[in-house]
User: What shape does this take?
Amino acid sequence: MIKVIKDNESWLIINKPSGTSVHNDSESVIEYFKSKNIDTIPAHRIDKDTSGLLLLAKASDSVASLQKSLSKSKKYYLAICRGKTQVHSGTWSDPLSDKAEGFKNPRGKKSELKSCITNWKLIHANKYFSLILFQIETGRTHQIRRHCAIHKLEIIGDKRYGDSKYQKLIKNKYSFTNMALHSYRLDIEIDGLAESFQAKTPSYFDTIMGEEIEKFL
Assistant: This one.
């Protein structure tokens, strides 16, 4: 279910569930608000299978200013990744193309690679999984997902960049059909005010980790 976190006269920020597209289908975020007689325009986008924070304009003349604010904002994501990382934090700067590729070539074509920065910090780990907080400084397509795949920390439920046999095993064991990537926090200056928004993680994060993860955040 879509949860409204803040409703301003010119914009909305919501917690989008995994499996709901931003636009382009009959059950998208845009169509959901249209059914409530609210016209919205996405100021940015997150993948259909990614849950969490999404900023929407209520009028076309608000989009440019919101996008300018987003360009200066700090975006944080949480993900549950395969395995237990032995390193507790770092920065990944592997160049990526702007085009989404797949499991065999997450970087993209060599001739199309561009600079890319993903900062990360381990929040909690057990024998099987790592809960990681990401802060991205660039916005390449599927940036976090691709960097995770490159560094052998594929995101649970990532059918595009993850190992198909492993992902099928996880799906069967946990009856899990989503992707464990969540747009968790947005620090942004909007309408001249510094704002910090957070979106509660889906319950399946707790199920996969085997404990309540909010206590680690």
Q: What stands out?
A: Helices lie at 29-34, 60-71, 143-150, 164-174, 203-209.
